[in-house]
């Protein structure tokens, strides 16, 4: 989401005549567009803002802005005023598209300009400056109504707002005409998308049937709202990528309840089995957190057990971090850092074995894949089920779909050769 919105900010600036510079030192405007979902993300931003002080000393006319979730978070404005006096503009998640107004306002008043109020209007879109000719992210909704007890997102992004259906379809149509090959529909809870009488399944179906050779994927859905209809679209619509990111968070029913995740481990496994039954080649990935308050050894073993059963294609694993203002921050039974570390190491180790097995399984198979980028003498290609295969650079052009036979698995990196050149 932050990448997409940053591309929107870059688009606004470009339309207004600003140009990109290579070095921070030379810029007239430095924007930090931020995330505060975990403490480590916030620490990184404060480190970067601190480092910008020296740059501004050499270039005093430079404007520094802090935007996004962190700017919206309770207490940030006071902290910035107290300790980071070189920041000029603070703008939250409600109206990033008003960036030029914020700059004007600052230029008139020359004191910290705060713009952290209001409700997001999803019908105002930004003239996105995409950083790739192959991939494009399309924002379909913003905010979250789920209130998982550990999560700060509902407090910094606000309640769910869905974007106009026709406007999304129109943007996707244009992107496909412009040659983009992979569209990702994004939002905090994509599958609770609702615009008038249209739901997420109807949106995905409509976008996937637009004319052209492309794929569409989506991130992130919530297991609670994952309908059979969406599973069927993933399985049956040719242009829908065979990949579902389904955040689990924990394999323990006791912890899931304390997290307010609204599903049980049994219901989650039913969903995984339903996806695999309808679409055996589908890649299923997840988010898992260790060390939620009161998580004991048995709870953690339940998480390892579900990881063993679900055989995820990959896992994004996190150590629980306290986010002030969330219910979990006040819970008794916070887990010590050493135990959290031990658990995450164990989880990563288990997943690495599962990942190896997935990679070995792919050897000898033929996949249609999209060449996404070059890396030295290699062409990196992604299959419709999200496997990354490495080809020699002269085998494919960026943006081309090619058939590849996987010839080897080197430490979970799939190596392939052209099976038969396809003309697009
Ligand atoms: N601590 C650690 N991880 C978190 N996530 C959300 N909130 C926290 C937190 N307080 C993780 C969840 C979510 C992902 C985007 O970030 O796993 O799915
Ligand atoms: Fe956070 Fe839960 Fe909403 Fe995801 S669903 S953004 S984890 S509150």
Biggest sheet character: 5 strands, mixed, barrel
Radius of gyration: 23 Å
Strand content: 15-25%
What's the CATH topology name of the domain at 2-115?
Answer: Rossmann fold
Number of strands: 19
Secondary structure: helix percent = 25-40%
Enumerate the distinct ligands: 5'-deoxyadenosine, iron/sulfur cluster
Mean pLDDT: 95
Name of the CATH architecture of the domain at 2-115: 3-Layer(aba) Sandwich
Poorly predicted runs of 5 or more residues: none
Q: Largest beta sheet: what is the strand line-up?
A: 15-16-17-19-18
By DSSP (H or I, 4+ residues per run), the number of helices equals: 13
Q: Roughly how many Å apart are the termini?
A: 31 Å
User: What is the CATH domain class of the domain at 2-115?
Assistant: Alpha Beta
Q: What form results from the Cα inertia axes?
A: globular
CATH superfamily of the domain at 2-115: Methylthiotransferase, N-terminal domain
SS class: alpha/beta
């Amino acid at each position: 989401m932050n990448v997409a919105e940053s591309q929107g900010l870059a688009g606004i600036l470009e339309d207004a005549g600003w140009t990109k510079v290579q070095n921070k030192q030379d810029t007239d405007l430095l924007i930090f567009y931020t995330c505060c979902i975990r403490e480590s993300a916030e620490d990184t931003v404060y480190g970067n803002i601190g480092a910008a002080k020296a740059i501004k000393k050499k270039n005093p006319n430079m404007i520094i802005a802090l935007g996004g979730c962190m700017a919206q978070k309770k207490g940030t404005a006071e902290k910035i005023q107290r300790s980071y006096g070189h920041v000029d503009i603070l703008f939250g998640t409600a109206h990033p598209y008003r960036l030029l107004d914020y700059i004007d306002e600052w230029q008139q008043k020359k004191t910290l300009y705060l713009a952290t109020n209001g409700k997001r209007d999803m019908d105002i879109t930004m003239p996105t400056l995409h950083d790739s000719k192959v991939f494009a992210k399309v924002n379909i909704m913003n905010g979250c109504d789920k209130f998982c007890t550990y999560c700060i997102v509902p407090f910094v992004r606000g309640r769910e707002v869905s974007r106009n259906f026709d406007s999304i379809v129109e943007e996707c149509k244009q992107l496909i005409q412009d040659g983009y090959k992979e569209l990702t529909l994004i939002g905090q809870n994509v599958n609770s998308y609702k615009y008038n009488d249209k739901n997420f399944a109807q949106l995905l179906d409509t976008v996937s049937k637009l004319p052209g050779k492309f794929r569409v994927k989506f991130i992130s859905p919530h297991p609670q709202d994952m309908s059979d209809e969406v599973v069927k679209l993933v399985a049956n619509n040719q242009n829908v990528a065979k990949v579902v990111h389904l955040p689990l968070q924990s394999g323990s029913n006791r912890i899931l309840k304390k997290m307010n995740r609204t599903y049980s481990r049994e219901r989650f496994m039913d969903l995984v089995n339903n996806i695999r039954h309808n679409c055996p080649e589908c890649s299923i990935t997840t988010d898992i957190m260790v060390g939620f308050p009161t998580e004991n050894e048995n709870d953690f073993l339940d998480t390892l057990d579900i990881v063993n059963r679900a055989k995820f294609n990959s896992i994004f694993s996190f150590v629980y971090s306290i986010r002030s203002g969330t219910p979990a921050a006040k819970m008794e039974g916070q887990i010590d850092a050493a135990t959290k570390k031990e658990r995450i190491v164990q989880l990563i180790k288990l997943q690495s074995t599962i990942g190896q097995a997935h990679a070995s399984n792919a050897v000898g198979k033929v996949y249609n894949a999209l060449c996404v980028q070059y890396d030295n003498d290699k062409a990196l290609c992604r299959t419709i089920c999200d496997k990354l295969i490495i080809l020699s650079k002269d085998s494919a052009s960026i943006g081309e779909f090619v058939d590849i036979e996987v010839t080897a698995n080197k430490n979970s990196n799939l190596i392939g050769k052209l099976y038969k050149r396809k003309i697009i």
